[in-house]
Specification:
By secondary structure, the chain is of the alpha/beta class. The chain has 4 domains: 15-90, no CATH class; 109-410 and 707-720, Rossmann fold (3-Layer(aba) Sandwich), CATH 3.40.50; 418-695, Rossmann fold; 744-853, Immunoglobulin-like, CATH 2.60.40. Helix content is 40%, strand content 17%. It is built from 29 helices and 27 strands. The strands form 5 sheets. Strands 1, 2, 5, 6, 7, 8, 9, 10, 13 and 14 form a 10-stranded mixed beta sheet that branches. Strands 21-22-25-24-23-26-27 form a 7-stranded antiparallel beta sheet, with no helix packed on it. A 6-stranded parallel beta sheet has the order 17-16-15-18-19-20, with helices on both faces. Strand 13 (375-378), helix 15 (381-391) and strand 14 form a beta-alpha-beta unit.
C-alpha cells in the first residue's frame, strides 16, 4: 500500500460568515453565551454531536446550510453583535489590570500546568486541577492580566469511561485529530511549524508548538507526535497521566524544560513563572540554565534570580499525590544536563529531597518546586495547615508557623459555569456588573430583588433539563451494552422532575467516599421510598485506571441503581466531563460532598453549584470549611477527624442521613398554597449572594496579582538589574555566611525575672551575648525572642517574635543584643532565643534557614 501524505482542507465560508472561522479559534466563545448561541443556531444537532466544537462544526456543516444562514437576517444581526463584542473585548481597554498602578512594561506571567479544562471539545484535563487552570486563564484574560499558558497537547488525552453490564469501569482512549480542534500550529519566520528540541539519553526529542487563543491571552501546547521523532518518542505526549514512572518523567521534562525553552525561543520572556502543581517544576532549571548560558552567571547566582520570580501552587493533601523519581532515573535523564548547570549529581538530587543527606530518598517534584519558589500557596485555608505539616521537612530548622506556605483559596470563572437561565436572571436583576466584576459583594446583594417565583421556576427548569439529559444519557449507556428493549423503554419514567435531587459527582478515589450515603442502606431505602416527599440521587465520576478500590465503589453503586428500593431513584451517568458537570451543578437541588477531612484540598464543584442556586451539603473540608454558614447550606459533622476510619464513616453517615431526613427534606417540601418552598428559596438566595463573589476567580486572580505576581515581578527586577548585581551579591553573601555559620554561638542570656510575679502588660528585658567568626558581621545576623502562650504539652499555641537590637561589642569580643518581651496574655508562657541570618533581600527566615538556638 502507498504511504499517503496528508493536509487539511479548510471549510469555504460565505464572505458574510467568515467571522465565524475567526471566532471558532478563540476560546472567548466558550464563556460567551451569545457566541455559543451562534454556533448552536447553525446546526443544533451537529453542535451536540461534535461535543460543542465550532471548528469541527464549520468543517462538517453543509455548504447549503451556510448559504442559507448567510441570507438569514436575524442570524447576521446576531453575528454582527457578537463581532462587536469580540472586537471591543480584544482592544483590552478599561480592564481591571489597566486601572491598577502601572506594572513594568515587560510584566508577563507564564502559567504552567499539566492539564487545562477549557471546554469539553479540547480534552486536555482529567478533573479539578485542569478545570481550575482553564478558569485561571479565562479570568486573567477578562481582567486584562498578561498571562501566557504552557501545557501539553495530548493526542489521546484522558480516558473515556464506559461501564459494562456488571458496572465495572473500562477505559477507552480516542486519538484526536488536531485539525478539527480550536488550535493552530505556531509557525517560524519561514512559515513552517515551530519546533524545538530537548536532550534525552542518546537522542534529541523534537517538540512542535501549538497555540490556543483564550480571549486576550494565549496557551502554548507541546506535541512530540511528529515525524522527526521515533515511534516511541512520538507516543510520549499521547496520554494525560498515562504510562509508567519513566514516561511521566519524560512528559515533565517536555513540559518544564521544553515549555520554557519554547517560550524563550519564541522571544517570550516571562518575568513571573507560576507552577500549577509540581509536574512542571523543571522549568526552574531551564531558566537557571538559560541565565548561566546567556548571562554568564554561576548556578547559585542564577538560582537566586530564578527563585525570586517563581510562584508555586500545591494541590495535593497527601505525599502520594506528588511525583517521585528514583535517583537512578534522574541520573539517566539528567547526567548531561547537570553539567550545563555547573553542579554535581548530589547537588542536583538535593534540590528534590526533603533530606539532602539521604541517598535513598527519591527525587520529588513538589519539593523541587517548593525549593525554587519564593511564593508558595495551598488552595484553601485548611489546606494551608495540611501542606505545612506535609512539607515541613523541607525547612527542618523552621517552626511550623514559619513554613512559607500560605493559601489562596480557589475560585471559579462564573461565566463559564452559570446556566443560560440564571445568567438571564442575573442580567435582569443584578445588571452587567455581576459578570464584569464578579467579586463585587455589593452587586450580589441585589439577588434579594429577584422575585421568589421567578427564581424558583428558573431553577425548576434547570432540574427538568438535567432529568431529560440524564435519561438520554442512560439510554445511550443501555444501548451500548445491548440492554433489552423493555429496559430501554423504562428509562422514560426514570427519575422525577419534581423530586429533591442530590448530585454526587467527583473522582472516585477512596478518600472521597462517594458511597458513604449507602452506609445505612435500610434507612436510605426508607428515605428514598417516600412517595410524598420523593428524593433521588444522580452520580457521576471516574476512577483512575489503576485504582481498583475506586472501580469497586462505582460497581457497588451501579448495583444499587439496579435494585429495589433504589431502582429509578438512583442513577449513574457515564463518562463524567465538563458537559455532564454543567448539567449537574446547574440542575441539582443539593450538592453532596463527603471526603475524609482534611483530604479535600479545595473542591470547586460546590462553588459552581452555589452560583446556580444549588445548596451545598458537605464535610467541613477544603473551601466549605471557609464558606459554610447555616444560612447557606449544611455540614456533615463539625470538623472532626477520626483515627479509626471505619468508625468515622459510621458516625458521619449517620449525621448525613439525620440532616437529610430531619432538616433538608422537610425544608424542601415545606410548601404554602402557592407550592413555593419559601424557606428553601431564602437559603438559595443567601448562598448565591454570599458565596458567588468570594469564590470567584476574579477574587482569586486579584489575590495572586497583589500578593504574588507583582511582588515576584518587583523582586525579579531588583535581582536582575545592573547585570544581576544584586543576585550575585546575595549569592556571595549566602556563601560567606554559610561558611562561617558553624562558629555562631549564643554565649549567654540574661532576663530580669528576679523571681517577681509577672502580669499581663509587664515587660521582661533580655540581654543576649553572641559570638561570631570573622566571616560574619553584626549586621549579618538577627537575634529573636520567640515567645507565646503554651499548651499542656509545652508547645507554643501562638508564636510571637521580638527582635533584640545590637547594643555593643563586649571586652571579650562578643556582641551584646538587648530586647524586650511584652507579656500579652495570662497563663503558661514560653520563650526561646535564636540567631538567624539577616539581609535586606531576604524577607523570610525560610529563604535561608540557618539557625542557632540557645540551649
Amino acid at each position: 500500500m502507498p504511504i499517503f501524505k496528508n493536509f487539511y482542507v479548510a471549510p469555504l465560508l460565505p464572505p458574510k460568515l467568515e467571522f465565524l472561522q475567526e471566532l471558532a479559534f478563540n476560546l472567548w466563545w466558550s464563556w460567551n453565551i451569545d457566541a455559543i448561541s451562534l454556533f448552536r443556531r447553525l446546526d443544533e444537532q451537529l453542535w451536540e454531536t461534535t461535543n460543542h466544537n465550532p471548528v469541527m462544526l464549520l468543517s462538517l456543516i453543509s455548504q447549503e446550510r451556510l448559504l442559507e444562514m448567510e441570507n438569514d437576517e436575524g442570524f447576521i444581526t446576531s453575528m454582527e453583535e457578537v463581532r462587536r463584542q469580540f472586537r471591543k473585548y480584544l482592544k483590552n481597554e478599561g480592564t481591571w489590570f489597566k486601572n491598577q498602578p502601572p506594572a513594568p512594561s515587560n510584566f508577563l506571567v507564564a502559567y504552567f500546568s499539566a492539564e487545562y479544562g477549557l471546554t469539553e471539545c479540547l480534552p486536555l484535563y482529567s478533573g479539578g486541577l485542569g478545570v481550575l487552570a482553564g478558569d485561571h486563564l479565562k479570568t486573567s484574560s477578562e481582567l486584562g492580566i498578561p498571562v501566557v499558558g504552557v501545557g501539553i497537547l495530548y493526542q489521546k488525552g484522558y480516558f473515556k469511561q464506559f461501564l459494562d453490564a456488571e458496572g465495572w469501569q473500562h477505559e477507552n482512549y480516542t486519538a484526536y485529530d488536531f485539525g478539527f480542534l480550536p488550535i493552530r500550529p505556531v509557525r517560524n519566520e519561514k512559515g513552517l511549524p515551530f519546533i524545538i528540541s530537548v536532550e534525552f539519553p542518546c537522542r534529541n526529542v523534537f517538540i512542535q508548538v501549538w497555540k490556543v487563543d483564550i480571549g486576550r491571552n494565549r496557551l502554548f501546547l507541546l506535541d512530540t507526535n511528529i515525524e522527526q521523532n521515533s515511534r516511541e518518542d512520538q507516543d510520549l505526549t499521547d496520554y494525560l497521566y498515562g504510562g509508567d514512572s519513566e514516561t511521566r518523567l519524560c512528559q515533565e521534562i517536555i513540559l518544564g524544560i521544553g515549555g520554557m525553552r519554547a517560550l524563550l525561543k519564541m522571544g517570550i520572556e516571562p518575568t513571573v513563572c507560576h507552577m500549577n502543581e509540581g509536574h512542571c517544576a523543571f522549568l526552574t532549571l531551564e531558566k537557571i540554565r538559560h541565565l548561566i548560558e546567556q548571562k554568564g552567571l554561576n548556578f547559585k547566582e542564577a538560582y537566586e534570580a530564578v527563585s525570586s520570580s517563581c510562584v508555586f501552587t500545591t494541590h495535593t493533601p497527601v505525599p502520594a499525590g506528588s511525583d517521585y523519581f528514583s535517583p537512578e532515573l534522574i541520573e539517566k535523564y539528567f547526567s548531561d544536563y547537570i553539567k550545563s548547570l555547573g553542579i554535581s549529581l548530589d547537588e542536583f538530587l538535593s534540590l528534590g529531597k526533603t533530606d539532602p543527606k539521604n541517598d535513598k530518598e527519591h527525587f520529588c517534584m513538589t519539593v523541587l518546586a517548593l525549593r525554587l519558589s519564593s511564593f508558595r500557596n495551598a488552595v484553601s485555608r485548611l489546606h494551608e495547615c495540611t501542606s505545612k505539616n506535609l512539607w515541613k521537612g523541607v525547612w527542618q530548622n523552621a517552626m511550623l508557623e514559619e513554613i512559607p506556605i500560605t493559601h489562596i483559596t480557589n475560585g471559579i470563572n462564573l461565566k463559564s459555569w452559570v446556566s443560560f437561565e440564571f445568567r438571564n436572571l442575573f442580567d435582569r436583576y443584578l445588571g452587567p456588573k455581576w459578570a464584569e466584576s464578579s467579586d463585587d459583594t455589593e452587586v450580589w446583594k441585589k439577588v434579594d430583588s429577584i422575585p421568589n417565583e421567578e427564581l424558583w421556576r428558573t431553577h425548576e427548569r434547570r432540574r427538568e433539563r438535567l432529568i431529560a439529559f440524564a435519561r438520554q444519557r442512560i439510554i445511550q449507556q443501555m444501548k451500548r451494552i445491548n440492554a433489552p428493549l423493555s429496559e430501554i423503554e423504562s428509562v422514560a419514567s426514570l427519575l422525577n422532575p419534581k423530586a429533591l435531587t442530590i448530585g454526587i459527582a467527583r473522582r472516585f478515589a477512596s478518600y472521597k467516599r462517594a458511597d458513604l450515603i449507602f452506609k445505612d442502606i435500610e434507612r436510605l431505602g426508607v428515605i428514598l421510598s417516600d412517595n410524598e416527599k420523593p428524593v433521588q440521587i444522580i452520580f457521576a465520576g471516574k476512577a483512575h485506571p489503576k485504582d481498583k478500590n475506586g472501580k469497586e465503589i462505582i460497581k457497588k453503586i451501579i448495583g444499587y441503581c439496579k435494585s429495589e428500593p433504589f431502582k429509578g431513584k438512583v442513577v449513574f451517568l457515564e463518562d463524567y466531563d465538563m458537559n455532564v458537570a454543567r448539567y449537574l451543578v446547574q440542575g441539582c437541588d443539593i450538592w453532596l460532598n463527603n471526603p475524609r477531612r482534611p483530604l479535600e484540598a479545595s473542591g470547586t464543584s460546590g462553588m459552581k453549584a452555589a452560583v446556580n442556586g444549588v445548596l451545598n451539603f458537605s464535610i467541613l473540608d477544603g473551601w466549605w470549611d471557609e464558606a459554610y454558614s447555616k444560612e447557606c447550606g449544611w455540614t456533615i459533622g463539625n470538623g472532626e477527624t477520626y483515627e479509626d476510619e471505619n468508625y468515622g464513616d459510621i458516625i458521619e453517615s449517620k449525621y448525613l442521613l439525620d440532616t437529610l431526613e430531619k432538616e433538608i427534606i422537610p425544608l424542601f417540601y415545606d410548601r404554602g398554597k402557592d407550592m413555593m418552598p419559601r424557606g428553601w428559596i431564602e437559603m438559595v438566595k443567601n448562598s448565591i449572594k454570599k458565596l458567588s463573589p468570594v469564590f470567584s476567580t476574579h477574587r482569586m486572580l486579584k489575590e495572586y496579582m497583589e500578593r504574588f505576581y507583582i511582588p515576584a515581578d518587583l523582586k525579579n527586577n531588583s535581582l536582575s538589574k545592573n547585570d544581576f548585581s544584586n543576585a550575585k551579591s546575595l549569592a556571595q553573601w549566602k556563601e560567606r555566611v554559610a561558611r562561617g555559620w558553624s562558629a555562631v554561638n549564643i554565649v549567654n542570656v540574661k532576663a530580669d525575672f528576679n523571681g517577681r510575679e509577672t502580669k499581663i502588660g509587664d515587660n521582661i528585658n533580655f540581654e543576649v551575648e553572641v559570638a561570631l567568626c570573622e566571616n560574619i558581621k553584626p549586621e549579618d545576623i538577627k537575634v529573636e525572642i520567640i515567645h507565646g502562650p503554651m499548651d499542656i504539652s509545652g508547645n507554643l499555641m501562638k508564636m510571637q517574635k521580638s527582635a533584640a537590637i545590637f547594643s555593643e561589642k563586649t571586652q571579650n569580643g562578643t556582641l551584646l543584643f538587648k530586647g524586650i518581651l511584652k507579656c500579652s496574655s495570662s497563663g503558661k508562657y514560653g520563650y526561646a532565643i535564636r540567631v538567624i541570618p539577616n539581609h535586606p533581600l531576604i524577607e523570610e527566615f525560610c529563604d535561608f534557614p540557618l539557625v542557632v538556638w540557645h540551649q
